[in-house]
């Protein structure tokens, strides 16, 4: 029987991290990894980015399970969010599952989820159309595995993060024979790690790296402060080993560390004697040459911690004269500037900096020749380079073509591409929409492009708020525009600009008041346009402009019966988030059916979309608010 197969990336292609791929075999969906990405250069306040799984939501019932390759955040990080929506089993190695559980335990919504299954390289899981098995690989965290989906059309192989290293220790070793056997059995397509594909130089072996760390500890006469990503268990092990050999004690710092180290220790994946570790207090009684401070955390955190230590901002441990800061894991390129700044800070604090990556290629990912070896072992018919930006995927494609793989057998996919294998041919089918889901604080996915664009504008050019109070009946501006700005210009030094702006606003408002067809949406738009034009002319900046138009004279009008009759149609209060909460909820339910209101409402909605207004427009209220203090209520916004 022939199978219909689809391969869909939800992340991990043309970007660094956030690995998540779906393989659909005859309608059953197998998820490979469920990772997150830390935003590069601090993406306007976003904490993490996870894949957008709208498509999976619509096809919930077809998801079979999630299979994990290893315990890094780019493979398991999105799991807590995923499992809060999808109740499916999760498979991975002992170490990976232990870390996945740690992750999930932090998320209240999925605290009780318990459908984890530990597998190893001998496990085979039969799902009928598909048999899933695993093979051990070498990476910077123990028990990393690749995944094989055996179908009637051949095998689909996902390597996960890997490299080859002949000196790898148990727990980190690649099963070469098994790779050869998988290749012998026929591989239809391989999804293979491209993160280091551009690199033509061989990775240093872990043995060489271990020796280098030991040498550094040996020759250095003072304290060594090691910066290392917590998830690089292999490097932490090497630091411990080198400390033992050179007679140093280790002091652990960093938030994430204890948990990960404890997990690894409890599982016997990290070995050292208890007397190796010391507390910060014990450090004082030791000769600096007998100590190592291990500073760890999530990606990017160790470097930031070193900055704080250099600036003497840490509570317990700060840098001192003669310290060597030793960067043992390579930060991503996005961190280059930060790393350069950090080096400077360390030298100013009287220390020195050394990085393993200055001397050798210490990546945990396969370099070009390793990738070619993987292809030679697996002999796939098709290659899908994954895990990396476009240029890396492209470099991987070129490496494959050097081996004689035809160009049309290599697919550089984008998120949401649907690679389809049907009746003997592989090709791109109709794609699906896949974007990113931003997480800021506890909000998942409530930050969209509009919010981000506003943050960008606010960061670039600031905000300009103009409050005007009018009396619509008398067609008068009651209080002259009150202007507030933040991050735009220094107000005191720009009095003329502010004054002129005030006049422009007044003029626009008066024009609208004089117009018979008065419309709130139009008024605001008008103010914004005139002001924006003027401000750009004067400053070449485009701040967010927030016109706030207030109306007074409610009491007068209430007394008039004629006005009362008109209320439903023309009342268009535009008070921003009022101080009285009850006023906020009432208008929504009332008077939403007047035709005029609809037009005005739509315009106002567009305003909101623009990000210029943060309030709900309140129109056609049968019961009017007592807008006695309009200026006060707005001023605080
Ligand atoms: Zn990894």
From TrEMBL:
<keyword id="KW-0479">Metal-binding</keyword>
<comment type="similarity">
    <text>Belongs to the metallo-beta-lactamase superfamily. RNA-metabolizing metallo-beta-lactamase-like family. Bacterial RNase J subfamily.</text>
</comment>
<dbReference type="GO" id="GO:0006364">
    <property type="term" value="P:rRNA processing"/>
</dbReference>
<feature type="compositionally biased region" description="Low complexity">
    <location>
        <begin position="590"/>
        <end position="609"/>
    </location>
</feature>
<dbReference type="GO" id="GO:0004521">
    <property type="term" value="F:RNA endonuclease activity"/>
</dbReference>
<keyword id="KW-0963">Cytoplasm</keyword>
<keyword id="KW-0378">Hydrolase</keyword>
<keyword id="KW-0694">RNA-binding</keyword>
<keyword id="KW-0255">Endonuclease</keyword>
<comment type="function">
    <text>An RNase that has 5'-3' exonuclease and possibly endonuclease activity. Involved in maturation of rRNA and in some organisms also mRNA maturation and/or decay.</text>
</comment>
<dbReference type="InterPro" id="IPR030854">
    <property type="entry name" value="RNase_J_bac"/>
</dbReference>
<dbReference type="GO" id="GO:0005737">
    <property type="term" value="C:cytoplasm"/>
</dbReference>
<comment type="subunit">
    <text>Homodimer, may be a subunit of the RNA degradosome.</text>
</comment>
<feature type="compositionally biased region" description="Basic and acidic residues">
    <location>
        <begin position="560"/>
        <end position="577"/>
    </location>
</feature>
<protein>
    <recommendedName>
        <fullName>Ribonuclease J</fullName>
        <ecNumber>3.1.-.-</ecNumber>
    </recommendedName>
</protein>
<dbReference type="InterPro" id="IPR036866">
    <property type="entry name" value="RibonucZ/Hydroxyglut_hydro"/>
</dbReference>
<keyword id="KW-0269">Exonuclease</keyword>
<keyword id="KW-0698">rRNA processing</keyword>
<feature type="compositionally biased region" description="Basic residues">
    <location>
        <begin position="579"/>
        <end position="589"/>
    </location>
</feature>
<dbReference type="GO" id="GO:0003723">
    <property type="term" value="F:RNA binding"/>
</dbReference>
<dbReference type="Pfam" id="PF22505">
    <property type="entry name" value="RNase_J_b_CASP"/>
</dbReference>
<keyword id="KW-0540">Nuclease</keyword>
<dbReference type="Pfam" id="PF17770">
    <property type="entry name" value="RNase_J_C"/>
</dbReference>
<dbReference type="InterPro" id="IPR041636">
    <property type="entry name" value="RNase_J_C"/>
</dbReference>
<dbReference type="InterPro" id="IPR004613">
    <property type="entry name" value="RNase_J"/>
</dbReference>
<dbReference type="GO" id="GO:0008270">
    <property type="term" value="F:zinc ion binding"/>
</dbReference>
<keyword id="KW-0862">Zinc</keyword>
<dbReference type="InterPro" id="IPR011108">
    <property type="entry name" value="RMMBL"/>
</dbReference>
<dbReference type="Pfam" id="PF07521">
    <property type="entry name" value="RMMBL"/>
</dbReference>
<feature type="domain" description="Metallo-beta-lactamase">
    <location>
        <begin position="17"/>
        <end position="213"/>
    </location>
</feature>
<feature type="region of interest" description="Disordered">
    <location>
        <begin position="555"/>
        <end position="637"/>
    </location>
</feature>
<dbReference type="InterPro" id="IPR001279">
    <property type="entry name" value="Metallo-B-lactamas"/>
</dbReference>
<dbReference type="Pfam" id="PF00753">
    <property type="entry name" value="Lactamase_B"/>
</dbReference>
<dbReference type="InterPro" id="IPR055132">
    <property type="entry name" value="RNase_J_b_CASP"/>
</dbReference>
<feature type="compositionally biased region" description="Basic residues">
    <location>
        <begin position="615"/>
        <end position="627"/>
    </location>
</feature>
<dbReference type="GO" id="GO:0004534">
    <property type="term" value="F:5'-3' RNA exonuclease activity"/>
</dbReference>
<dbReference type="InterPro" id="IPR042173">
    <property type="entry name" value="RNase_J_2"/>
</dbReference>
